[in-house]
Design brief:
Length: 118
């Protein structure tokens, strides 16, 4: 008895040519992407100031130009805060793109495949 092979449905991995996104899809993705950046920035700011307070026991040196803040403290705040902001922004943008792919089955408009063969 021979087994039948099921036809593979086109998925994100097997699709050959990306479809051109409609104007509403491009606008929706742009809104989602910008929104995720804003949410990420606000979240990162809260996380970094809270983490600074937990680790050092002092409020975060938000005004690094002030002479009352030591240079070393200002530099560490800038490095830690900047890295955390970028990590959270990247995470929120990736989450938005993942949601888009799960919702539509396609990459967000304007996004190209990193590995075309896969």
């Amino acid at each position: 008895m021979a087994r039948r092979k099921k036809k593979a449905e086109p998925t994100l991995e097997t699709a050959t040519a990306p479809r051109k996104a409609s104007r509403s899809a491009r606008s929706t993705w742009k809104l989602m992407d910008r929104g995720s950046v804003v949410v990420g920035a606000l979240l990162a700011r809260r996380l970094s100031t809270g983490a600074w307070r937990v680790v050092t026991g002092k409020p975060a040196p938000t005004n690094s130009r002030s002479p009352e803040v030591a240079t070393r403290e200002a530099v560490v705040w800038a490095v830690v805060g900047g890295a955390l902001v970028e990590l959270v922004r990247m995470g929120t943008r990736r989450a938005a793109a993942t949601y888009w792919v799960k919702s539509t089955g396609d990459l967000p408009p304007g996004m190209k495949r990193v590995r075309p063969g896969k």
